[in-house]
Amino acid sequence: MKASKKNIVKRIGLLLCLLLLNPIGGITNVQADQSVLFAPPAPSTPSAPLSQDGRTQDPVSKKDSERRLAIIIDDLGNSMGGTEEILNLPVKVTVAVMPFMRSTEQDARRAHELGHDVLIHMPMEPKQGKPEWLGPGAILSAMTDEEVRKKVEEAIDNVPFAKGINNHMGSKITGDDRIMAVILQVCRERGLFFVDSKTNYWSVTSQISEKMGMPRLSNDIFLDDVHNTRHIAGQLRKIQDLLDQKGKCVAIGHVGVKGTITAATLKQYIPEFQARGVKFIGISELAKEQKGPGAPGRGVTSP
Ligand SMILES: [Zn+2]
């Protein structure tokens, strides 16, 4: 069981690498599937109980109002396919922008201007895969604490408007206590949070974040680990189930060679989510509500 989970995680990591390294997407004729993703919401029943002030107490409505979906789109910064379509989605999303790339500054600035959240998509060494898949400025397991700190600080300085960091690849690094402690310390000093993309099932990021009094944020589900409309629609259905269970969900998709498919499928199904009362939020909203009373803010170094 453990081995198969690990294999799945490795496969996801590999797919992400391939997506990033492929040339800019040329898929333009995405024929969106017109099928309805969810059954229509049940009409409110006239027999719903009334509270003392006369308003209906419909538990379904209350649950709907608590459904919040944070969609993160990874791998921006390199003029990848689907970037424009993602930025122009009619709802708030979070974009994770790779540092030191040709459109890093532009993508981060435009996303911010359009009201989206921005993350630094920090390249980190995976357990498997070639170093050249990582992109510039990557964190490697052989680095000293000081070298890791310098890489994180340089990346933060390179991506404007970022509210947090998530990992590009990184299955090896997110399982490394020493390195994750350095990365999270720099995040804390700079008032940023860290979102674990969950490329490693055995990631230590959540435990270290908790110890340091920082928000624990991680990916619940990949949207496009298989990159076609049918699979993405299936993942959106699973997201609806997760929202029913937990009230909130973090999902990660990608720009890249097939990025236009992710964007088009999201655009197609957004109205159905909205009709069911799902609110699209930036990941920073989930980070903020986890901040305890004693948690440090921007620029504050804890003892
Ligand atoms: Zn990535």
UniProtKB/TrEMBL annotation:
InterPro entries: Divergent_DAC, Glyco_hydro/deAcase_b/a-brl. Residues 41-64 are annotated as: Disordered. Keywords: Signal. Transmembrane segments: none annotated. The keyword Signal applies. It comes from the Bacteria. Residues 1-32 form the signal peptide. Pfam families: Polysacc_deac_2. SUPFAM superfamilies: Glycoside hydrolase/deacetylase. PANTHER family: DIVERGENT POLYSACCHARIDE DEACETYLASE SUPERFAMILY, UNCHARACTERIZED YIBQ-RELATED. This is Divergent polysaccharide deacetylase family protein. It comes from Paenibacillus vini.
